[in-house]
């Protein structure tokens, strides 16, 4: 960061305190996003968390730096308006990262720095409230930042895929998690004016870019690749 003033934020390698030798869900070795706005990490795709064998040691540009542990320039943080307080928790760092990228800042992963993270401190990993916030906040974020030509197609696909996720929870008997997705969508319906105002506020401050033009974006769908093509590791998506 001292050598390159365009780097606004850096995250370390995030390893699990409770499951030594594995990456931690919240950040792993850097945050990425796919073409539909689903976040994932170098070392964690959906629920599949990889063992750290030194496979992701290079410093590289990423889409988002984990809120579990990051260093960020205070002037950039305040210039972006900080975190969106309506998020409460989960994915607020992705929302901030999107603004930084649209402002031509870079975000980096620095795996030579390592922290051990106790995950689930705010909400346990099996908490329906965690499911609710992740689905809700992710939808708010893509509505805020996607360019107009991409907004309706991507949101429509997300509605369908979120519905499939809900059916999967039902099939597993996880009724509270299925209901959490429904709650997330009804939040969007009930607060659509406020969310569209957030979108309008973005319009006045940033020039929107298609996801394909931003760093740290996988041009495919991690949902399709994970379940249909059995791509469960970051290296499956980005072969070296």
Molecular structure report:
The longest helix is centred in the middle third of the chain and has 24 residues, at 148-171. This protein has eight helices and nine strands. The strands form three sheets. Strands 6-8-1-7 form a four-stranded mixed beta sheet. A three-stranded mixed beta sheet has the order 3-2-9, with no helix packed on it. It has one domain (7-235). The protein starts with 6 loop residues before the first strand and ends with a helix. The chain has helices spanning 74-79, 92-102, 128-145, 148-171, 175-190, 192-205, 222-228, 234-237, and strands spanning 7-16, 31-34, 39-41, 44-45, 48-49, 60-61, 71-72, 106-117, 217-218. With 240 residues, it is α/β, with parallel strands linked by helices. The mean pLDDT is 95.
What are the defining features of this structure?
3-stranded mixed beta sheet; alpha/beta
Strand order of the largest sheet: 6-8-1-7
Q: What is the C-alpha radius of gyration, as a whole number of Å? A: 17 Å
Number of domains: 1
Strand % is: 15-25%
> Unreliable runs, pLDDT <50, ≥5 residues?
none
Question: Using DSSP, what is the number of strands?
Answer: 9
- The whole-number mean of residue pLDDT values reads 95
Largest sheet: 4 strands, mixed
Question: Helix coverage percent of residues?
Answer: 40-55%
- Element-level helix/strand string: EEEEEEEHHEHHHHEHH
Question: Can you give me a brief rundown of this structure?
Answer:
The chain is an alpha/beta fold and 240 residues long. The chain is built from eight helices and nine strands.
């Amino acid at each position: 960061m001292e050598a390159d003033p365009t780097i606004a934020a850096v995250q370390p390698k995030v390893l699990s305190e409770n499951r030594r030798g594995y990456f931690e869900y919240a950040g792993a070795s850097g945050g990425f996003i796919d073409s539909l706005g689903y976040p994932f990490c170098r070392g964690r795709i959906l629920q599949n968390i990889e063992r750290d064998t030194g496979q992701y040691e290079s410093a590289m540009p990423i889409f988002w730096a984990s809120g579990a542990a990051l260093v960020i320039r205070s002037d950039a943080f305040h210039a972006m308006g900080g975190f969106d307080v309506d998020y409460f928790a989960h994915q607020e760092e992705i929302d901030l990262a999107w603004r930084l990228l649209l402002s031509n800042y870079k975000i980096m992963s620095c795996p030579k720095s390592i922290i051990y993270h106790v995950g689930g401190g705010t909400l346990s990993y099996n908490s329906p409230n965690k499911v609710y916030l992740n689905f809700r906040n992710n939808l708010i974020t893509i509505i805020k930042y996607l360019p107009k030509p991409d907004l309706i197609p991507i949101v429509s696909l997300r509605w369908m895929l979120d519905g499939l996720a809900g059916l999967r929870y039902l099939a597993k008997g996880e009724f509270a998690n299925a209901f959490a997705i429904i709650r997330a969508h009804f939040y969007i319906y009930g607060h659509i004016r406020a969310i569209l105002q957030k979108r309008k506020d973005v319009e006045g401050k940033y020039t929107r870019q298609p996801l394909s033009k931003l760093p740290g974006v996988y041009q495919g769908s991690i949902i399709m690749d994970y379940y249909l093509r059995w791509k469960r590791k970051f290296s499956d998506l980005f072969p070296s």
